[in-house]
Amino acid sequence: MCCFMHTSPPGVPADRAGRADDVLALARLATRRGAVREMLGWLGRRAGGRAVLVGGAGRVLAGPGGGHDPAVARLAAGAAADAAVELHRRGAASAVLGGGEGPPVHLIALDTDPRTYLAVVGPDDPHCGTLLADAARTLALCWRLEQSERARRRIESAEEHSREAVLHLLMVGSVPAAQRIAGALRPALPAVVQMYVIECPHARRREIARRIDREAGGGAWIVPCPVRPNHLLALVPAEPGPGRAPVSGAPHGPRLPDALDLLIVRLVPECRVGVSAAVALRDTPTAYEQAIHALAVARNAPERRAGFGGDVDVTVLAGPEGHVWASELLAPCLRYAPARRADPGPQELLGTLGSWLSFGGAASRHLKIHRNTLAARMRHLDELLGVEVSRSLAAQSAAWLALRLYTAPQAAAARAQAPPGQTTTLDAVLGTPPPGPGPGPSCAPWNRPVRRPAWRPYAPGCAPTPASPPRRPPWASRSPAPASA
């Protein structure tokens, strides 16, 4: 009599150990950057085929990393796409399709929405089905995570571009349109603002923006600078709104915006912060210029922050004489008629000039044009104005002042008051009498402020002090000295 004892095949424990090793390898790959590509590459090597992710419509969504023969990759992608479309049509969760003249394709549906399939083309592993079933769970989680990260980046990018659009509208004076868009995006733009220009590492710009927004209690309008990749711009209410909480982390809870720049440099030591004076929302361009000047000081200040403490505003010169002088200087641009429809018109040329004076070669990013287009426009402006604006510092200074006076808020009233046929000179403009009744030196309303330091460095716990004695501007001798200092 013979007895037969049933025993497991000798290879089963080894198969189980190998499967556990595979699951462990997939778990390790899932922790890496670019986990989906890493896992697909590992699956292809492990199964002896080519692994890809395919959508239900036959579009290849992801493939393995590393170098592969392009011809082989195209054939495998085509076979996987056809098989995925067929499996999707059948509504099945997994199958082995193909064969015959083409390679077999092993497919399994991932637990994702929309439906995504893991396909391995031409595997030589007899246990490929088990391997795919184990890999599908981990791969589905990694794929959903990568898709969520892509969606988050798209949303962040869309919000950044929307905020950039609001900033562009403010910089060109379209305040009502900017307020409407900002009201939809939140927070609403305040009526009186301070501009913060924050210089920080480009790779950490979004992280720093989130920290600043959190510390500001949602009251700051933060925009990544569209021109300088290491700058963040923040419009902060000059006075805290009703019910706004104190800035977190500050001693005794000081309110915005006094402690925000101090908090920024404390939170992120790599940052440098320049702060403008408080201005009306319509004067955002002026606030930006002030903050940029303050940032130049902050780069070398031990506190890593500086504020613009002056009250300099050359638009007080935008009376009839100032408008006439600016119009004369810019007349070749204003009268220019483009020869072709695609050529820039007067407003585009003036916008290009203003952007170039502010940003130099980086104006191409500000204007969203190619750098060769910017260079061609600047050559054209040199020809129109009859001076080398792109090379002469004196011409640049005159063009900057002319643009400021021509686009000042009071320019329309000055145009109406200017006598027809009047001409004037820059010396006459600089000697413009102060507006309103009362005697006094000709340029007192704007000469007195510029003779004080236009910026102030901060020292924690100390009153603002100038770091250097004020310098008399080179043109101040053209007018009588102020009656009192």
Automatic annotation (TrEMBL):
This is PucR C-terminal helix-turn-helix domain-containing protein. Residues 349-404 form the PucR C-terminal helix-turn-helix domain. The lineage of its organism: Bacteria, Bacillati, Actinomycetota, Actinomycetes, Kitasatosporales. Residues 432-442 have a biased composition (Pro residues). Residues 416-485 are annotated as: Disordered. It holds the Pfam family HTH_30. Residues 416-425, 474-485 have a biased composition (Low complexity). It comes from Streptomyces violaceusniger.
